[in-house]
Amino acid sequence: MKAPLFARPLTNVHLEQIADQFAMSDLTLPFWGCRKKMPMRLIVRLEGEGNYTVFHFSDGSQLMVSLTLKKMESRLSPRVFVRPHKKSIINLLYLESVNPDRQQMSVSLVNGDRIEVSRRKASRFIKQVRGFQQELMDIDAKPTAPIVVVA
Description:
The chain is α+β, with helices and mostly antiparallel strands. The protein is 25% helix and 36% strand.
């Protein structure tokens, strides 16, 4: 059984608004002897490979940095990024659905990736997803301030 997360897909404008609400700043990453700033809202998921972390971005590009997944987890916004498995961190903004199964729960991301959720982390993961959904509903329910044009 597939449980959809969002009623409608998020647009780039909506992603930027949500990123602002969650205070998702830029992330400074070491890259070939220099540092690059990357907007957190563009990160779909992170994948650990030993002492390296592979970033998967919304445009399909990837970047490998020489930091462990544990170090990267401490730099990310815990309200938006969750760790469903010891080798993965996902951005809940790009979560398409949760796929419960008797044997192994998994999640589908909007870019087509499918990530397994470890049995030990499953209940905590579901709580984090539900909390995130509630925060999104609260953001959508807030009235927006009218734009005042002064002539």
